Amino acid sequence: MKLNLILCKSLSSIVLCLLLTINATAADTIIVGQAIDLSGPNADLGRDYVAGIKTYFDVINARGGINGRRIQYLVRDDRGQSGQAAKAVTQLIEQDHINYLFGGIGDDATQTVLNAPAFKRSGLTLYAPLAGADYQKEPRILLWRPSYLQEVRYIFSHFGKLGIKDIGVVYQESAATADAYRSLTAQMQESGVKLSAIVRLTNGSTQMSAEAARLALAKPGFVLMIADTVNAGLFLKEFRKYAPQTFVAGSSLTNLTTLRQLAGIKAVEWTVFSQVVPNPNVGSSAIQLEHVNTMKKYRDEPVSALTLEGFIAAKSWTRLLQTVKRGNQGQADYSVPDAGFDVGGYVVGATPNSRHLSNYIDIALFNKANGLTF
Asked: What is the pLDDT of residues 142-167, one digit of tens each?
């Protein structure tokens, strides 16, 4: 009897020690989760975005964390599937007990996560997805990048300065592109740009070559593609047979590696893309220089616009973390200062009542060396 009592006390002590250790570890750790495409159609974008985020978190942890708390960064691969994104986020919330959630790629996946029951119950705010819709009616999202409408306006402004006022549109209708197309049509009406021709793509279309020829015959000043990267690449390959020197434009979320592989090296000449960060390969500002230097230190891979975007998004998040207020039901709200804040030469969060922290947009040209010229 005494032996059993002693054994029970010993086991109780061990369990208590384990629980205290677990609680102490949890108290010293900030768990950040993210579901993003790492092996699907936008894997190149996802891997670069994650690399930029992880690099900045590595910097913070090397400095001792945030107020002594280290960041544990958990990333799950949603394979570019919206249903898998919701499943992965549910696991992060219910099994990994994350404290904060970063977003994935595309409006379809983003909206699916916002609608997921586990996310709605969690009180979390979805932070910095690579998405282009406006989400003004969604209270639980904060985007780092500008909206697709802002990118379209900048593209129109760029070509307007060149005296080009007529456009050809390549549109692949889907849930992921619907908001982008609405933004495009609204901007066309606002700016007075003439529609020369529109091509509507469907997956596996046998009419792609004929549609490319028809668009080229209309002789638009430039062509804007609203399509996933695979269909955009296949169409561009056909279009270049008929219009080798017509400007073709795309958004910052075009997967340029995949586009080049599908369309061919020659086809991507005379293409331009909106970019939501400055040139990642130079150090003309403090944040650009910090990104280049820390990527060299922590990552064995080249920098890109997406590694820089992830880096700045993570740095912005650590600044916002100081402002988080938790409501009565555990909801975590980021409080953005009215005047915004500087992240190393760029002020973000200075637009009142906006769910987009950054308004920065630039244009980059795909050059003959298969890189971007800003």
From this structure: 999 999 989 999 999 999 999 998 99
- Judging by DSSP bridges, how do beta strands 70-77 and 141-142 pair with one another? unpaired
Catalogue all structural domains in the chain, each as residue range(s) with its CATH number: 23-146+283-360 (3.40.50.2300), 148-275 (3.40.50.2300)
Question: What's the maximum distance between 2 C-alpha atoms anywhere in the chain?
Answer: 95
CA–CA distance, 344 with 285 (Å, rounded to integer)? 7
pLDDT single digits (tens) 238-248: 999 999 999 99
Strand pairing report for 372-373 and 362-366: antiparallel
Residue in the structure block whose two tokens are 């994935």? 104
Global model pTM greater than 0.85: yes
